[in-house]
User: Fold these one by one.
Assistant:
Number 1:
Amino acid sequence: MAHSTNRRWLLASRPRGMATVANFRLQEEPVRAPQSGEVLCRTVYLSVDPYMRGRMNEGRSYADPAKLDSVMVGGTVSQVIESQSSSFKPGDFVLGYFGWQEYGVSAANHLTKLDLPADLLPAALGALGMPGLTAWYGLLEIGKPEAGQTVVVSGGAGAVGSVVGQIAKIRGCRVLGIAGSDRKTDWLTGSLGFDHASNYKSAADLSTEIGSSCPDGVDIYFDNVGGAVTEAVLPHLNTFGRIVVCGQISGYNLVQPLPATSILPLLLTRRATARGFIVGDHSEFFPRALADLRGWVENGSLKHEETIVEGLENAPTAFLGLFDGSNIGKQLVKVSNPE
Amino acid sequence: MAHSTNRRWLLASRPRGMATVANFRLQEEPVRAPQSGEVLCRTVYLSVDPYMRGRMNEGRSYADPAKLDSVMVGGTVSQVIESQSSSFKPGDFVLGYFGWQEYGVSAANHLTKLDLPADLLPAALGALGMPGLTAWYGLLEIGKPEAGQTVVVSGGAGAVGSVVGQIAKIRGCRVLGIAGSDRKTDWLTGSLGFDHASNYKSAADLSTEIGSSCPDGVDIYFDNVGGAVTEAVLPHLNTFGRIVVCGQISGYNLVQPLPATSILPLLLTRRATARGFIVGDHSEFFPRALADLRGWVENGSLKHEETIVEGLENAPTAFLGLFDGSNIGKQLVKVSNPE
């Protein structure tokens, strides 16, 4: 076999507080040959996502914790190198869950063949993948937007948030995105068609700024970040408002949660709903959602953007960059060139 | 006319922090004669409810604030004295919204004739009235209990909570009620059939006690109180749990909310929902809910209890007692004897 060595990142230690590069260890191992029904793949793109921070902890988040000295989990676009399954042939592109490594062997039935042009392969981990599905389900099935309503999305320039705002525009809503740099807010209003964007790091008074952008109040708050940004949004929530709880990235590296204002009195007086979700619980919606997302990308109403770091060796840096907002759109690691 | 003088309680001043008797003023005025289409009624039972505290504030809660120097609002069971409407005749009992006063004139179409035996008239403001409807809607339509699931209700011995727990038992759930005295917890388990009851004032560690009573976690938390009690319950919430936000009485007299732990991370990791509601938004359910409630009362599976204070002059004291937990079941003021 031509590719005898696999490099992979293991979880070396559990962080206390902010995760660092030292929590990961790069290791080499021989590539194993696929058995009957299995497929050997090479990773082309690796997705790094905020949820992985939860997996690094000992306690249960939504999923069991990642195991120490095991390969870090993660979604990938991979290319088939060797197949012992009639479902795949060498050269096929697949969506898999190979994790932070160059090669992997998987049962064929855990892989999905990708029928996408080469320029859309990265989007299979972004607007046309899990983040896009997350935006679709959270906004449409939990948020239930109606034309003319106001949608605010935090983490607005991220992989999920940037899709949320664009779907909200497609549905005829007024959209405010909140992000952490002028480059991001310019992108949201200049390229993605958001009506307003606020830079929470430079705003003199974020809550006042939100009030000015949303004179009719906020019907849907799609929350990716939590913390102070969320506290600035919530007073503007309308009666019968919906809080879609998709992420709380501002708190993922905290040892102790910060004191907050309870939202229960607000939910009561506004007769509002807050609902947390993870998209994997709702796979019955995926075919419809993917058809919508693909159609919007093809007709130009949904723009997708990926921030791509080169080289598996940079996976920890790319991952940690999510927590200081380095990425615009989906953060990926390019692990190899497709053949 | 035999009854020429009406005594009534006005809102004299807005409280800052804990409401006191000094916020109310007793006034006399002549009784006005009903015009065509109107009915003159005498109050038999006046309902005092926690929501009235919100109306005493200047700011908007769910409804507009009560007006200074106007009669305090409130639901009543009243008896018709004089009718200028073909819909009612003297002696009829009606459900109205006459407020804290002995007599009132109302348009006939704002009144509902009560078809109840005399011993159930107080229940028309409790288990067979707004609190019962609130329990029914919140538990069944928001909580969506399934047999075998665990329901925790705070304010468990109150007008709403005591009905919530009993409906949950009817639906085959395990029920823990939280209340503030041993007399209440004994009533919940001894008379109402709750599986467990915790006295939050005397518990050594309320959260540990809840964990022991709910070994399978909490599927539905019906919250009437908020604050520290709620913080003790929430860590036990199960995946896909539902928080029914019905009241937050622990905070109604606070000038500033106490610092809390944000529930958004919990909603996310547990994929849980928190929803606030007021029952008046859901009147389409009332006929079905009232039929259920009446059926359960008549077949003995739903017990109703009222704490009744005599005399309109004691209305402020009865109302303020809600905030130190004086009442078991529904708190009423008996304003007059039916004729």
Number 2:
Amino acid sequence: MSQNSASSAPASRRRLRLGMVGGGPGAFIGAVHRIAARLDDRYELVAGALSSDPERARAAGAELFLAPDRCYTDFRAMAAAEAARPDGIDVVAIVTPNHLHYPMATAFLEAGIHVICDKPLVNTVEEAEALVALVRETGLVFVLTHNYSGYPMIRQARAMVAAGALGALRVIQAEYAQDWLATAVEQSGQKQAVWRTDPTRGGVAGSIGDIGTHAFHLAEFVSGLRCTALAADLQSFVPGRRLDDNAHILMRYESGVRGTLWASQVCTGTTNGLRLRLFGEAGGLDWHQEQPNELRFTPLGGPTRIIQRAGPESLPEATDISRLPAGHPEGYLEGFAQIYRDAADRIAAALEGRQAPTEAPLPTVEDGLRGVHFIHGVVESSRRDAAWVSLPAP
Amino acid sequence: MSQNSASSAPASRRRLRLGMVGGGPGAFIGAVHRIAARLDDRYELVAGALSSDPERARAAGAELFLAPDRCYTDFRAMAAAEAARPDGIDVVAIVTPNHLHYPMATAFLEAGIHVICDKPLVNTVEEAEALVALVRETGLVFVLTHNYSGYPMIRQARAMVAAGALGALRVIQAEYAQDWLATAVEQSGQKQAVWRTDPTRGGVAGSIGDIGTHAFHLAEFVSGLRCTALAADLQSFVPGRRLDDNAHILMRYESGVRGTLWASQVCTGTTNGLRLRLFGEAGGLDWHQEQPNELRFTPLGGPTRIIQRAGPESLPEATDISRLPAGHPEGYLEGFAQIYRDAADRIAAALEGRQAPTEAPLPTVEDGLRGVHFIHGVVESSRRDAAWVSLPAP
Amino acid sequence: MSQNSASSAPASRRRLRLGMVGGGPGAFIGAVHRIAARLDDRYELVAGALSSDPERARAAGAELFLAPDRCYTDFRAMAAAEAARPDGIDVVAIVTPNHLHYPMATAFLEAGIHVICDKPLVNTVEEAEALVALVRETGLVFVLTHNYSGYPMIRQARAMVAAGALGALRVIQAEYAQDWLATAVEQSGQKQAVWRTDPTRGGVAGSIGDIGTHAFHLAEFVSGLRCTALAADLQSFVPGRRLDDNAHILMRYESGVRGTLWASQVCTGTTNGLRLRLFGEAGGLDWHQEQPNELRFTPLGGPTRIIQRAGPESLPEATDISRLPAGHPEGYLEGFAQIYRDAADRIAAALEGRQAPTEAPLPTVEDGLRGVHFIHGVVESSRRDAAWVSLPAP
Amino acid sequence: MSQNSASSAPASRRRLRLGMVGGGPGAFIGAVHRIAARLDDRYELVAGALSSDPERARAAGAELFLAPDRCYTDFRAMAAAEAARPDGIDVVAIVTPNHLHYPMATAFLEAGIHVICDKPLVNTVEEAEALVALVRETGLVFVLTHNYSGYPMIRQARAMVAAGALGALRVIQAEYAQDWLATAVEQSGQKQAVWRTDPTRGGVAGSIGDIGTHAFHLAEFVSGLRCTALAADLQSFVPGRRLDDNAHILMRYESGVRGTLWASQVCTGTTNGLRLRLFGEAGGLDWHQEQPNELRFTPLGGPTRIIQRAGPESLPEATDISRLPAGHPEGYLEGFAQIYRDAADRIAAALEGRQAPTEAPLPTVEDGLRGVHFIHGVVESSRRDAAWVSLPAP
């Protein structure tokens, strides 16, 4: 086999009791969340509201080894019942279309249950602010699955920037290009496409909400800087599409840093092309999601170095969360699972009334609010023909 | 997110009861097996012989949520006790150094328990033949974790070759180069290195046994051809090393196909560089383990096409076992988990007395025997200064 | 060696008599022009104004095998003398800093001598328009060395777009990133840096003029579309720098096509990173200058194909101008030489009073005018905080 | 443009008078030699024996601007006439099929004319030894165009090995794979294929002579080590082919270094795939001809560095012979031209009775002899079923 041992066992050894809302048969992201929860053996799925149809809810639950009495058809009923059980769920994963995040998160938080929620947070600034307030009020853990921030080499990049490896930053180039909406697949009923291109469910933005928010979050996450203003030009290239499917954005960050952000779902030849490049006075970094195990670092005056996850010059921030040695590719699921693993540490600490041992950089409800500001800022700027729109400070 | 839904749930919904022998704290491959078993929720780990020290066995078991009475210190005791329990394990995973595979596999097979065993199978041809006989006699499932054959694009390559996309094959180039043994790490006590370079535990071969067997299996697995003869030149470059750490081999396959196989663990700049290239009258294929989601196919007279897992021209053999859409990288753990998923189908069918629904191409005890023949053939050829040595037909 | 023969000899067999202005010892681009002129044996360098210092002019001329009486110290004297000689130069190459292009080009055109001129054309719109008028009036050939348009795979991309391989275009992403000005090298006297960052010589723009114009030209050249408006955000990151060293631009093209253009000379880890990506309804193209022999083409619904220069699916537009078969890399000099070869065909035809046999897509004085409009549009937009600025139709 | 100036002018400024034998219209390698000779302006082509047919010889000569009286139809007549002229050629380039190299080289050497000759040197060991003796006897310069040794990053690799960057070498992997002979193109009359697959012209070996010798030369050139023994398995995959089109070879070098060499012309998906990897105690190098401007260097314990030609960590051996700054790709022709440039230095020095200023590592007649030994050693080993064959020390 190979050289390193997989990372050591987590400090706290209890499996958290997990519930899931949404994510029934055929759902893409629900299955991903479940694998992510299982990977490190920190969760046990014990309850779900997988369908509003009783028959289908029970069948889906059986498929997932849920007890029949914990297969709910209504999320409010589930929150109430689980809160009342002595063995009720510790945490719920919300994996529905965007417009349902707000009422669901609210219901579970009010029932005293920690929340892991898919992105984007919610569809309006008002909802986002209300959720921020509720999380603060309840003191519960709220984790937003900006899963790309769980990739070890993204953590490495963040650590390198923080440690000054790039010196003062100058330029951030973020792009996230896909091609699966290059034709009007929503008109043929493709389930993933239908709700994402429907304003009543997906919100005011299409590609910007679906993938642009990931790129935005990652740019801020890695750079440690806040975007202060943006100027956006949105397009809907596919005839009949009601939301944007392509976006070009000029970005201004704190400290005079500049950049662009490009999000697209209509560019044939790209697949899940999330790429982040950062350039500073002392060096540059280049990372591509489709080759997530390597990070290219070029110090000023030196050749480019290919830093491999868990290999030479891989920092503890990346190596310690690696499950495999270098050369054994980890991927999307492991990055997603990292969010779950870090969330488990935090939730377990909360349940036991102690500090989480190491404060992993998990995306929070506040990051969700920023994402909603970003979405609305972009839409507003584009409506005003790419006028500059300021983003509020967090 | 993205376009496809993750693959549908498996036909049979029961979790198999899994035991593990070896794989205690600090073990690399034990942790990998456990994640692989968990990924698709087809197994539940319920028993283990994780250490011969009672204290450590219990601690390691607690870490893995095992009941105290199922934390064994002796594999024979475990086989007997589990076979006697009504809720005893269905299958055991053997994840120890090579020299223990034989007695352990024998014990569990004789106790009527299915076996998943790490590679290489055993250290001698005699042991391998005895195991083959025992598996046939008991009718139990025996799966060898040549995990790289679980990668979707390896399954794709195999399917393309079988379908004639390359025409009659001509050349197979297999290489597996690492660098983690470039220095005498075994002398500093690195646990993974120590037993692999110790003939009493690793067997007659070093790199050939550890990684050469993977490359050999993959070459035969993808090509559908058997190696008939080989001529090998082995080296031990690192002073004091007792087994080979580099091997160059001329290969002859059925039907006049020729190739080379290179295995090394001392080549700085390679990491886990398993690469397979096949060339035929009508086209060529190129796959590299470190970028496992793509397969390069060049038809005669056409440009090279980059086929992505679950993307255009991805065959059902690859797409149907994908957990994620194209562009969302899967890696080593998913490939390993595929072996476990396919094994679960087969074992569940055996337990229920029916045929496994689709006969996935799982590595078997017979493949293990071939691997042992390969190891001994290589060592013999090298002793005779790279004379040709025939491999027996399977 | 290999399979194809190099491309056949050009139709017209005469060597053009070439003069050069600028490009004395230590000049980068002068040496490039000379190699480009020599490569296909269509020119003979016979005269030059390589320095205003008589001693240095003669020494530099001797180095280049010029006769002493054709080593001039003044471009006007050179234009007059050469025009008067029966064996005077047919064509002059102008390879000086930008601010000298206008008077020099004017002098040679007025003397009836064809011109090959480095880019950008001139520093002001007025000069550019005057040159356009003069070229039209004289009927002489004027070629602008937007050399990247001479790369075979750029010609291929242009031909594919024109033939509809991408369908209706949607998005054009152009980027040209370098890092050689990441520090204030101009303050240490680096010759190439000094004049490029000096407004009196480089003009109103820095990186935009030096490399942004290449990216702009290429985007229009390949797409066949005109940019109609742009919104630009310019920066001068290096303290003390007087011109832009980084530029982010939103681009709007004819037919609703959108894009961005990024030019930078301060991004460590990029070298000469000119990349062009085009996406249309039916497919996408991706080309990178540092790997110029391949073009990635992804048809809608198919895998990406790596089209190699002179290999399968290489069109006549690329193969016919290849000097080498596929796999034998051509580079920057060959692309530059293509401009010279095409210019030779055109000039020879003009000298002989006939049509140039195939009308190669050479960059003209009108392209130079567009580049100047682009530069001034970008600068104006940035001054107005990234307001949209229209570009005039050509 | 960019940062560096092109390399400075050579010390000696005279153009050598060059003759060419072979290389008439349609010849591939003749055109390459001519461009290589022109690139740095160190040669003037003044005479040729381009065809044995007077009409065609004159037409071809006119195409190349040769005076009619220097268009010969017979190489012996040319050697005699040119030797007799006061302005006769200084050096001849021999660019014919292999079997003609010997009589031609002999004729020109005997006439006192320096020789640049294509590879492989000749077809038999006897001829090779005779040529070595003749070159020594005459004291003339004899350069063999193992052109790949002219690539800057190959020179860099050689210098790094010599300087100990890899420590003591262990493994050398050389491969040169093409696909242009994957079908029986010689049967359709393809000129390049016909003579290469004809034993009376190509010699005893096919792919081994045509491209294997390049890989062999490069392995020794870069490593500074001599191959001492080899064991080869040759194939002729294409029905009707009379010479090998694929070869797998086990290699043993001085100092216990081991390797393989693979040469093939039938592997679809490879193009001109010459790759060289060297591994030593302290690091590894990886170079691929199709991306010749970069060299990957991995020091033991560090990440892989991508060293770019003329970029950071590019040594003088590479930077000083670069015509362009990093990021501006040089290719095959520039590498070939380097051989010509170095040859010009050496020949000019010889003509002027002085030492060549820096002794560039040019391939010599002795290297040619080694190549012939290699060819015959491979063929003999393969005839004896891959028995070990020793190569004589040089």
